[in-house]
Amino acid sequence: MPLSTGNYTSAYLPSLAKNVVKDTTFLIGLCHSWYMNNDNFHIKIQQQMRTFTPTLMHTELKHAAVLIPVVLQPEPAILLTVRAAHLKSHPGDVSFPGGMVECYDNGIEDAALRETHEEINLTPNQFHIHGRLSTALSKNGVLVHPVLATLNDATNSIANPDEIADIFSVPWQFFAQTTPELIPFERHGIAIQVPHFHYQGRHIWGLTAMILLEFINLMEGTEWPLPPFTESEKYRR
Fold first, then answer.
1. How far apart are CA 129 and CA 125, in angstroms?
2. Pairs from 29-33 (Cβ < 8 Å, separation ≥ 24)
3. I need a labelling partner for 34 at 20 to 30 A (CA). Which of 56, 96, 164, 230 fits?
């Protein structure tokens, strides 16, 4: 006897549900694979940066520039460094390549590229600059300008032992899928939530993680809380 609609549903729903779950999981994975394609990721960066308006602070404080190197091959990843243990400032911390803006630099982008070359051997002509993210305020009262750039690969990167202990990369997929640990903190008279990421024994936190969080929000559509640096007593002086 042919099954009625009700019998058909009750007889085959468990199997149907399993297939739907399998198909949905497959489609999500397929879409993510498409999204994680380096060409598509590069295009999305270009699209997002065209309409992005960073919060740029203007002050007489000391200025520093850091580069956010997005490596496209073999898959999108963020290139990071570990600062040398003998340095007076932030020894052993995970950071972006970068440093103080000098009088001979031809602007913020030039300073970020120069410091990157000095620290990890990557030359300016390897990078495509996409623009700046919002300025940030370091614990020492230095105004930090993050410059976003992509490069095809970083196989020729070499750590300068005078400044850098190690170089490593974190797949973008990790940042896209990981919830940061947010720890309340007060700095320069403002309440902030400091993000912490843990990746294969590396602790990514502090200003580096704050800058990363804005980039994650931009690319993933998330709304992780960002520090209101413009409200800082240090900045208002």
1. 10
2. 32/173
3. 96
Question: Residue 56: inside a domain, yes or no?
Answer: yes
Tokens of 30: 């397929």
Specify the residue for token string 């919002």: 134
> pLDDT per residue over 81-139, tens digit each?
999 999 887 889 999 999 999 999 999 999 999 999 999 999 999 999 999 999 999 98
Rounded to two decimals, the pTM is 0.84
CATH number, domain of 95, equals 3.90.79.10
d(CA 48, CA 216): 11
User: Given the structure tokens 């394609």, which residue do they identify?
Assistant: 37
User: What are the backbone dihedrals phi and psi of residue 192, each rounded to the nearest 5 degrees, phi first?
Assistant: -130, 160
- Cα separation, 165 vs 130, in Å, equals 28
Instruction: Return d(Cα 212, Cα 154) in angstroms, integer.
Output: 19
